[in-house]
Structure formats: C-alpha cells, structure tokens
Design a protein that fits this description.
467 residues; 15 strands; globular; binds pyridoxal-5'-phosphate
C-alpha cells in the first residue's frame, strides 16, 4: 500500500495514549490520565486546539511559549511550503545558505548595537550550551554562576547551571565550579565574582518556574559587577524572548546590556526546532579564532532551511500583527482582571508577570474547614493545589494551563500573543468559577484534590514496588 500520511493519521488518531504507553514515556501517560489531560487533539488554529469531537479548547500554555504567533499561522506555513516548492539546497554544510544569513540579519536588526553575530542551533538547551562554551573561550575562565530556581535546559552544561534540584536529582556529577545565588542576594554574587574566575553569570530575565524576577535593580547591579570583575553577562531569553513579556526581549525591562543572549522556542513559529545565540563579533570570534577552528562549535541541523524560513516569517508576523505590543496590553488586562478576583477569592495571594508570562499564586484559605483540606492536600503533595485549579479549567472550561513548578502553589499561564479581550474574559470568568467551587468545603473541588492525592500515593507505591 502506498504511504499515505493523512490516511494513517485519520485511521489511528485516538490510539495516542496507548501508543505512548507502549512505546514512549509511560510515566507521562500515567500522569496525563490521572489529571484528566489525556485529550486527543486533532486540529489547532491560533489560540485554540480542537478535539476529535470538534470541541474547542483555549490554549493558555502555547506549547511552553513556542506558539507566540498562534498555532499553524498561515504566513509561517506558507514559508515552509515555499521552501519545499523551491527545492532549495539544504544543509550543504560546505557553503553559506542564504536563509540563515537573512535570519541572522533580521535578528541583529531587532537587537541593540552590541549584538553583531548569530549562531544557530536546534533547541533552547543547545543555545545555552553554546553560550556557556562561548563564555569560556572568550574569558579563559571556567566557572558559571546562575540563580536559584533557574531553568536553563536539561543537557549537562545547561543543567549544571540550573538551580532546580528536581531536574538535577540522579544525574550528577555536574560541571565543576557552578554556583547559584538567590535573586537579590548581591553580596553573595559579589563574593563569588570577586575571585575573578567566573566565565559567565547567566539569568532568565523572568524565571519560567514560578514567574519570578527581582523587584528592584538587582540585575543592573549584577551586570555592573560582571563588568567590574571581567565576567560575561548572559540573558537566557529562550522563553522570554521575541515578544512574550511585552517587549522584544526580557532584558529590555531592566535596560540591561547583556554580552550574550540565547533564543529558541517561538523563534521558528512552532513548526521546526530552532535555537540561536546572539553576541558581539569580538566574543563570537574568540571561539572561531583560527581557520582550523571554523566549525569547532557547530550542529548539523543548525542552519536548516525550514527553521530559517520559519524564523523569518515569525519575525515578520510578530511585527506586522503588533504582537509584542498586544502581549503588553493583554498582559496588563489579564493581571488587572485576575487581581480584581482577589476580593471574592482571598486565597489568591499574588498575580505577577510581564506581558503574557503570568503567575497566579495561592495561599492558605482563612475558612477553618477549607484550611484543613488545604493542609491535607499539601501533606500529600506540595504541587497538588494548583493542579486542582488546572484540572477543572481544562475539563469543565476547556482552557489549557499548567502548574508552574514543583512545590509551589502557582498556576502559570503563557497564552499566545494573538489573544484578544475575548480570550482574557473567557479565562478570568473560568478561573472565577473554579475558585468559587474551591470555597465550597466539602465540595467537588476538594474531592478532586483527595482523589488526585490518592492516585499520587498509589502511583508512588507502584513505583516503589517496581524499584
Ligand atoms: C529559559 C529557558 N532556557 C532553556 C530552556 C531549554 O529549552 P529546550 O527545552 O528547547 O531545550 C528553556 C525551556 O523551557 C527555558 O525556559
């Protein structure tokens, strides 16, 4: 029978979770089934996903910030079709392709003057790995400092610089000499930098896990200390870059002048993996400093045509559709409207964010009985309460969101930058309704919490038996 992809997908759609249980990540399937996230999506457009029955879901997760321009954007799709139609030579390797040159030019045009050159790769963690290597060869130093609670990716270099223990457990030892400091702890940072052996200080302008950032000028002070002690300052813009925060780049909120930035995720509009590092020509050339070192850091698929074409189309869409401004406006509206819910739902502790990277943090309710339930749920698992919000948001209101991280009472939203007031209102009224249910004790929400807790305990026991 001739290969027919459309027929294959039509015939087998629905077997998704069984296939993954058998051949891919069983544990992930178990989690998705237990929290009711085992939906079979069959189509996607803009800010929406659709299941097999044609139900519409509002996507406030954006593939972890991959779909800033919305899903299946026609302009990005057309760019892919154009590349295929042109039968362009791809990855000749011993040449310089036009599309990678054009995308590098387009990125540099949108960046401040100190950025002069771009290196392309395939993912966020690969961009961070490259940035760390560039920093070592530019400074001749070995050590890296990052922030507690930071996330820079899961390959060894990036993980060595990441500050979330959950992701590191069981994978050490890591790169020697890496250290973390807490946001705002400028004294500890200076103590470390003053030894003059640190290659780079790397930060996410807004941390993905929990949406955390300094309230004052910590980043500016840190940057000044980096300059003083000869350390490079890297801003990891993999999640915050390209409009997510209501500015083109997250570092612009603090008027920073990083030496290196990393990008990925939305860079290629959600179709093809793509990552990039931007830096000065001087730093770039310290790695590629001799003819025989011209590919000393490289990646086979790094400048592939589809990724580059998608990148060009994505930058164009962000600009033509004013999506960076829209992210700023919709973000402010969302934060204001969720903040207004505080009056009715006092266990909303804080709503924070910039543009469309937003965290809603909860705290122990004041009602005595609800407080007992809160304590029980937290005893079982410290990330369970936000799951009790996220699960009905999906099952009852068809809105996809996520728990912001382990051991925190935070729901995180990352809507595509194409949303309008309609989507903002839809989310706020769904959240209002879910929180109203939460205030009924006993009630279905707390039953859900107890059920989730039981399943977690069961899964833990099964895991222990298997081990
Ligand atoms: C700030 C940051 N850096 C690096 C990464 C890793 O990117 P990737 O998953 O593409 O390797 C992520 C992913 O979430 C991220 O948010």
């Amino acid at each position: 029978m001739p290969f027919d992809l459309k027929r294959l997908v039509t015939e087998r759609l629905g077997e998704n979770y069984d296939l993954h249980e058998k051949y891919v990540n069983q544990t992930l399937v178990r989690v998705q089934r237990s929290i009711g996230f085992d939906k079979v999506y069959s189509r996607a457009e803009g800010a929406y996903l659709y299941d097999q029955e044609g139900n519409q879901y509002l996507d406030f997760l954006s593939g972890y910030s991959v779909f800033n321009v919305g899903r299946n954007h026609p302009k990005v799709k057309k760019a892919i079709q154009d590349v295929l139609e042109m039968d362009l030579p791809n990855m000749v390797q011993m040449d310089c392709s036009i599309l990678s040159g054009l995308l590098a030019e387009a990125l540099i045009k949108r960046l401040p003057d100190q950025f002069e050159a771009v290196f392309f790769c395939n993912s966020g963690t690969e961009a961070v790995e490259g940035a760390l290597k560039f920093a070592r060869s530019a400074t001749g130093r070995q050590r890296f400092i990052s922030l507690k609670n930071s996330y820079h990716g899961l390959s060894f270099g990036s993980l060595s610089a990441s500050g979330i223990e959950h992701f590191r457990e069981g994978f050490g030892p890591f790169l020697e000499g890496c250290a973390t400091v807490a946001i705002d702890d400028i004294e500890s940072l200076e103590k470390l930098l003053s030894k003059r052996d640190v290659a780079a200080f790397i930060v996410e302008p807004i941390q993905g896990k929990g949406v955390k950032y300094p309230s004052g000028d910590f980043f500016n002070q840190a940057q000044a200390l980096c300059r003083k002690y000869g350390t490079l300052f890297i801003c990891d813009e993999v999640q915050t870059g390209l409009g997510r925060t209501g500015r083109w780049f997250g570092f612009q909120h603090w008027n920073l002048e990083p030496d290196i930035i990393t990008m990925a995720k939305t860079l290629s509009g959600g179709y093809v993996p793509c990552g990039a590092i931007a830096t000065s020509r001087e730093i770039y050339q310290k790695t590629f400093n001799r003819m025989e070192r011209c590919v000393v850091h490289s990646s086979t698929f790094g400048r592939n045509n589809l990724a580059m074409a998608c990148g060009l189309a994505t930058l164009n869409v962000l600009e033509e559709e004013n999506l960076v401004d829209n992210a700023g406006r919709m973000g402010t509206l969302l934060i204001d409207k969720v903040n207004a819910l505080k009056e009715r739902h006092p266990f909303i502790k804080e709503v924070r964010g910039r543009g469309l990277i937003i965290a809603i943090e909860f705290e122990e309710p004041t009602d005595v009985r609800a407080r007992m339930a809160w304590k029980f749920v937290h005893k079982v698992d410290k990330s369970l309460f936000p799951q009790m919000i996220v699960t009905p948001l999906l099952s009852k209101h068809r809105i996809l969101t996520q728990v912001a991280g382990h051991n925190m009472d935070v729901v995180k939203i990352l809507p595509p930058l194409v949303i309008t007031e309609k989507e903002v209102d839809c989310f706020v009224s769904a959240l209002d309704s879910v929180l109203r249910e939460c205030r009924k004790f006993p009630g279905p929400m707390w039953e859900l919490g107890v059920n989730l807790a039981r399943q977690l305990v069961k899964a833990g026991e099964a895991g222990k038996k298997a081990a």
